């Protein structure tokens, strides 16, 4: 991998990881209170409202996360025009999307509290759509420092105010309001720093905005099909099972989302680079192959840890009294973590290499597979096990396996040609040692957190012993990933802009 490319990936990954460390801490702190004080029913309503919000946001974003990033990464001098035209058309889209959301909400027959919550989220879509455009512009410039600052401020605000409100007896509507205000603060920070990358703001040009939309159609189709198969399970559960089941499933899915931070961060860092070098087939394949090596090595210990400690995690953050059935759902999700990790990196490479039509068809097929599996598996597991969330989780894993097979077929053949099977074998070897160590430690009196840390350390030591990484890769980490460099990346010197 080119050293300049590696440094850009490392820089933005470090920034996003630093941000994630703070937001994770805040999220975990909030989860210690949120499910316990709201209960499984209201927690399920909050999760369902956010899932419906995410689906309707697709019609506003219109694939912008990828299409705008790609346009900016290739023509940075046009960022002002791209931003203005993208924001203008999304304000129009918000009006139609909000109307559709309101109609859906009141025809759904949901409880009044849930309807109000959904409408509140719908109002926030107008500034969320604008924020997403600015976020994509930052990504196109490979400058993720400012969105990271905004994310930290939002999560700290939500956590502190939500916990205070819960302790004072607030209900789900107050919590939803705090979350909406937090998203507005995030938007404000994006606007504040926009001058770092946008020097002038030209007039809105409707014809140019339509051109951007046309370029975004394949991304939009892929995004909408993809999100539907990720979120439709919650909607189907809400109609086919009691509200408490949605809460159990939402609690497990929350952790499933959290452990996706690593491939998500890495994809954000690598996508503008892959978009920029997309004509260099050798460079594209090499960067993709190296990214897969890294994500597989990182995903194995995450999957094993979540499987081993699902019981303790749910007990700590939710309490087994109200969320005991969540443990099995989380264990099922843990099995599929590595599949999702691989899918996210392969999908990023496919999107960057302009195979949008094919990838959209894969996402469409995934929707039919996921909905079909849910249609049969939710009622089956609800009747036989009293937990329809089990069926929804299994349906998600099967769908991800299908997506991975399709992605492997679509990526440039040179990527597989230069791939190193030895890395996968060595990573699995390290995972086997970790699994055995955790099993042995499970009989010890050590706290489960210490057991997890020891398991990951053993995994890392085994990888070093069997030389899973090449000498130049280790040399890069030793040279570039230092405390001094990370400090300069996250908190640059005054007047310095990288």
In words, what does this structure look like?
Helix 3 (64-74) packs antiparallel against helix 4 (79-107) and helix 3 packs parallel to helix 10 (261-276). The protein is 84% helix and 0% strand. The protein has one domain (3-419, 468-490). The protein has 498 residues and is an all-alpha fold. The longest helix has 35 residues, at 206-240.
Short key terms for the protein model shown above:
498 residues, mainly alpha, 22 helices, 0% strand, globular, disordered C terminus
With helices defined by DSSP (H or I, 4 residues minimum), what is the helix count?
Answer: 22
Q: What's the overall geometry?
A: globular
Give average pLDDT, whole number. 83
Alpha-carbon distance between the two ends: 21 Å
Proportion of β residues?
Answer: under 5%
What's the order of the H and E elements?
A: HHHHHHHHHHHHHHHHHHHHHH
Write the layout of secondary structure elements.
Elements (H helix, E strand, L loop, with lengths): L2 H29 L2 H28 L2 H11 L4 H29 L4 H29 L4 H23 L4 H22 L12 H35 L2 H16 L2 H16 L4 H28 L1 H8 L2 H4 L2 H10 L1 H16 L3 H30 L2 H23 L2 H6 L2 H21 L6 H18 L5 H10 L2 H8 L8
